[in-house]
Amino acid sequence: MRIRNMNTNDLGFAISLTEQEKWGSIREDFQELLLFDPNGSFIAEMNGEPIGMVCAISYGSFGFIGNLIVRSEYRKSGYGTTLMSHAIAYLKGKGTDTVMLDAVQKAVPLYKKLGFKEMCNSLRYEGRVEPETSSNSRDMEDKDMMHILGIDRKHFGANRFLFLGSSLSRDPDLARVIEVGGRIVGYIMGSKRHGFVRLAPWIISECPELANEMLRDFAVRVEGKQIKLGVLESNTHAVKVMKAHAFYQKSYSVRMVLGALPRDMQPSNAVYAIGSAMRG
């Protein structure tokens, strides 16, 4: 098996793998990853034919691995382990000490063999919300981005300007901020998918009691479409909000970590929704 860097010519293959897993990814997801780090996504080949992929992102001292998929007919032959080891080595080579990922249940034993430990469950919810416009919420504007990045860095732990900026540019009607006393205390963003809207990221830096209000206001923007989002189970208030709005837990994965997790990198209770492991 040969492993090489992913390029834009591989996007069709990458999407075909995520469709196989019913993940709901879109081409823009991979385009952003390649823009963020052209050398961090990899394709596995057998005799020149692509058979799998994996993606890695370094945010400095910590990073994420995701999109590990091997074509079904090539599984149980060690190719997934080889791809994972390649991605880990890439991040270690960039000085990344802590590596995280979200593992489907059947992959947990593989990751444990590679040294990963379980942190918490990453819950996948979907549902529809009764819409109601909030007088405290407004459209996110370009001028808000510096303040948003400050909030995001505090609770995510690194600069996600490329991903947040891209989301605002692509789906500005799904990007909202909520203010208290003229000060931004939280933001919520979404992206249009095939037949649904993915809500992520969603951070409430202050005033968690505004969570329900923010969600109902976001529902106004999705125009009745189904909303899908990920919630770390460690954020018990976010889980309560999902249950209050009758969201259905479709599935879950396991947030796992390789290496030491410093105290300031513990999952923040201000993070109400994650989109994928690659983006925290």
Q: Which spans have pLDDT < 50 for at least 5 consecutive residues?
A: none
Biggest sheet: strands, sense, closure? 13 strands, mixed
CATH architecture of the largest domain: 3-Layer(aba) Sandwich
Per CATH, what is the topology of the largest domain?
Aminopeptidase
First-last Cα distance = 30 Å
Rg calc: 19 Å
The proportion of strand residues reads 25-35%
Order of helices and strands: EHHEEEHEHEEHHEEEHEHEE
**Number of strand elements:** 13
CATH class assignment of the largest domain: Alpha Beta
What is the 3D form? Answer: globular
Q: What is the number of domains?
A: 2
Mean pLDDT: 94
SS content category: alpha+beta
Residue share in helix: 25-40%
How many helices? The count is: 8
Q: What would you note in describing this structure?
A:
- This protein is α+β, with helices and mostly antiparallel strands and 280 residues long.
- It folds into two domains: 2-96, Aminopeptidase, CATH 3.40.630.30; 125-279, 3-Layer(aba) Sandwich (Aminopeptidase).
- Helix content is 30%, strand content 34%.
- It contains eight helices and 13 strands.
- Strands 1, 2, 3, 4, 5, 6, 7, 8, 9, 10, 11, 12 and 13 form a 13-stranded mixed sheet that branches.
- β8 (176-180) and β9 (183-192) form a beta hairpin.
